[in-house]
Automatic annotation (TrEMBL):
One of its GO terms (molecular function) is galactokinase activity. Residues 90-177 form the GHMP kinase N-terminal domain. ATP binds at S66, G120, S121, G122, L123, S124, S125, S126. Its EC number is 2.7.1.6. It comes from Mucilaginibacter myungsuensis. Residues 280-349 form the GHMP kinase C-terminal domain. One of its GO terms (biological process) is galactose metabolic process. This is Galactokinase. The keyword Nucleotide-binding applies. Residues 7-56 form the Galactokinase N-terminal domain. Belongs to the GHMP kinase family. GalK subfamily. The record marks R26 as: Transition state stabilizer. Keywords: ATP-binding, Carbohydrate metabolism, Cytoplasm, Galactose metabolism, Kinase, Magnesium, Metal-binding, Nucleotide-binding, Transferase. Its main location: cytoplasm.
Amino acid sequence: MTQELLQAFEKHYSKPADYGYFSPGRVNLIGEHIDYNGGLVMPCAVTFGTYLLISPNEDNVFRFKSLNFEDEYTIPLKDSYVKDGTGWFNYPIGVVHHFVKDGHQLGGLDMLYFGNIPIGSGLSSSASIEVVTAFALNTLYNAGYTKLELVKMSKSVENNFIGLASGIMDQFAVAFGEANKALMLDCETLNYEAVDSNLGEYVLAIINTNKPRKLAESKYNERVSECATALAALQTDLQITNLCEIDAETFNKHKHLITDPIVLKRATHVVEENDRVKLAAKALSENNLDEFGRLMYASHDSLRDLYEVSGVELDSVVEYARTNPNVAGARMTGAGFGGCAIALVKGDAFEDFAKECAACYTDKIGYAPDVYSSLIGNGVGVLNDIPAHA
């Protein structure tokens, strides 16, 4: 992979790359749509993600090129930047904006990106681009940011530069991921625990429905608003700052304060899903994959029925998984409305699972999904196989 990218860089820029970086994508094993409610989530890094090769230039410009998109972008060094349309390059430009706004003197750079994360799949391709860019600039210019500060910066790019009201989970997972560990992250305090995730005879199957998440952004912001409405109603009787401060028992005693039935459904999912994450961490740490799988199915059912962010495509994958005895559990992952589902599948049965799941899905939906197998990987870092040219 790296050798092909080095050749592509040299072909495009007529010079070799000097530096290389990699940031993974992520899947969230459980704990969906509660990161922006101060809850517990359990993401992990996957073994595919975004590669970035860089070489300085003396032209005082940033050149952005991706092997995944046709559009390129060149912009001069300035002391401030603004979003320009909807192109992919806005994500790294947003990172550059933060660096210069903080007073860092950057030089011209030629940058080549390549991602093997399926675009629009819900595996955090945008967070991966943000974090790899922030990590690279921090390393190149000795800017002195901690990894957590880079995570917060990348989230700010997503929220304030791009304009999507997302939580911090995606950026945190791709930065702090550890091989064979899930991260139980408290999205309010940003404290986290690396939970041993010995999948034993199982592998993590990632099923991309290949339905673009066209509704995800508008519906995502709508759900954020609905949760804020639920919180305001509960705050008339409870001293809380987010929904996930209370457990299901406390919520049930006060849910009468929420008079809108739709808003009540959203809040019920949030509180119960937060409790499920705690149970899931216990199950994983005890290697109780049957219990973990049961919690995955329960999470999906709640996202389908209470939070209403699933859809026939994601539901079809999970419905098939329930019929396969080699699957411990399955659920949608990410924002929903398309994107990906995940399943715990016995490794020696993965190929059969992939074929049967694809056939069942295609028969029902009319087009095929893509089915991948992934390990739990490490977070952002330097590519060590870049030749030195000094």
